[in-house]
């Protein structure tokens, strides 16, 4: 399958990650099978993928088509050859980094998920509030965080659960607090208010890029002090228990106050609709130009 997305979590750690794993599903829904099955053409999909390391990985393909991808996690080559076509990127910061015109800055393609999953009416929402950590934060601090946020009344939703389960839980929530950017993107397109937070993992560039694409003012709320999973060594765990407990209490208090002190975000419905139209126009262009499986 000629779709490029970040699959290292799967290949190196045998772990799913919602923001990456939506690619095979969504791209199959959007693009002609002749493109997807091509050995020469590669669709560069959803994610923060445009950096030198990934560009080098794609050199075997004769044509690389960029669809709603973001810049980040490394240097970006200053020049791309004719084998690259940037149909659209995540936002204006990515476009600027790549030297593209402003019209190429559309949005993250994950906003189209709400056209393939049902949007739940407010009266049918069953979860008061959800917390979504970044996958790496889940690995490093998930056992502690799950306990903390559940005491504070949140549903703890890790990004490594099956895609349908992840979408379902976000869809039936009244508000989402998320460190994972695609948790925010999904919440926004499913019309669930959301609050962006950082604990361990936060790349401001990609968040600002996506915020700007929807005309939103960038903001992020830091949850501190840093919290980690308890030590596995019994002696270390006993020694650090009072310190761990005090930190957990502070973090729990912040989660309890969060919804009272921070304004939840939701993009303008008209802006979101406009971005979807632009993405579908990009899909139509790609299908018409490359649908026969031959790069022009």
Largest pleated sheet = 5 strands, parallel
**Helix/strand/pairing category:** alpha/beta
Q: Report the count of strand segments.
A: 10
Count of all domains: 2
CATH topology of the largest domain: Rossmann fold
Judging from the principal axes of the Cα atoms, what is the shape?
globular
Q: Indicate the low-confidence ranges by residue numbers.
A: none
Residue fraction in strands: 5-15%
CATH class of the largest domain: Alpha Beta
User: How far apart are the termini?
Assistant: 20 Å
What is the CA-based Rg, rounded? 20 Å
Q: How many helical elements? A: 11
- In the CATH classification, which architecture of the largest domain applies? 3-Layer(aba) Sandwich
Output the helix-strand order: EHHHEEHEEHEHEHEHEHEHH
Brief synopsis:
With 296 residues, the chain is α/β, with parallel strands linked by helices. It has helices at residues 8-13, 18-30, 33-36, 52-57, 92-98, 135-151, 163-171, 181-189, 204-213, 234-261, 269-290; strands at residues 3-4, 41-44, 48-50, 63-71, 84-89, 130-132, 155-156, 176-178, 194-198, 221-222. The protein has two domains: 3-115 and 273-290; 122-267, Rossmann fold, CATH 3.40.50.
Q: What this model shows, in words?
A:
This protein has helices at 8-13, 18-30, 33-36, 52-57, 92-98, 135-151, 163-171, 181-189, 204-213, 234-261, 269-290, and strands at residues 3-4, 41-44, 48-50, 63-71, 84-89, 130-132, 155-156, 176-178, 194-198, 221-222. It is an alpha/beta fold. It has two domains: 3-115 and 273-290; 122-267, Rossmann fold (3-Layer(aba) Sandwich), CATH 3.40.50. It is globular and about 60 Å long. The two termini are 20 Å apart. The mean pLDDT is 93.
């Amino acid at each position: 399958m000629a779709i490029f997305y970040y699959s290292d979590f799967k290949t190196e750690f045998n772990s799913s990650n919602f923001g990456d794993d939506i690619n095979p599903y969504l791209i199959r829904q959007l693009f002609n099978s002749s493109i997807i099955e091509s050995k020469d053409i590669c669709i560069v999909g959803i994610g923060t993928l445009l950096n030198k390391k990934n560009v080098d990985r794609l050199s075997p393909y004769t044509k690389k088509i960029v669809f709603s991808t973001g810049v980040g996690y490394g240097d970006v080559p200053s020049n791309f050859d004719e084998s690259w076509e940037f149909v659209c990127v995540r936002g204006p910061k990515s476009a600027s980094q790549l030297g593209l015109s402003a019209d190429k800055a559309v949005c993250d393609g994950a906003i189209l998920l709400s056209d393939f999953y049902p949007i739940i009416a407010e009266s049918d929402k069953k979860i008061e509030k959800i917390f979504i950590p970044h996958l790496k934060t889940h690995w490093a601090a998930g056992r502690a965080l799950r306990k903390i946020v559940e005491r504070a009344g949140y549903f703890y939703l890790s990004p490594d659960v099956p895609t349908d389960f992840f979408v379902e839980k976000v869809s039936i929530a009244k508000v989402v607090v998320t460190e994972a950017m695609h948790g925010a993107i999904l919440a926004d397109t499913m019309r669930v208010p959301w609050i962006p937070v950082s604990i361990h993992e936060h790349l401001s560039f990609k968040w600002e890029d996506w915020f700007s694409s929807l005309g939103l003012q960038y903001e992020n709320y830091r949850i501190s002090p840093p919290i980690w999973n308890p030590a596995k060594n019994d002696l270390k765990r006993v020694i650090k228990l009072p310190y761990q407990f005090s930190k957990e209490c502070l973090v729990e208090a912040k989660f309890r106050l969060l919804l009272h002190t921070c304004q939840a975000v939701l993009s303008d419905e008209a802006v979101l609709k406009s971005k979807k139209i632009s993405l579908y126009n990009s899909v139509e262009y790609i299908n018409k130009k490359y649908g026969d499986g031959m790069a022009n």
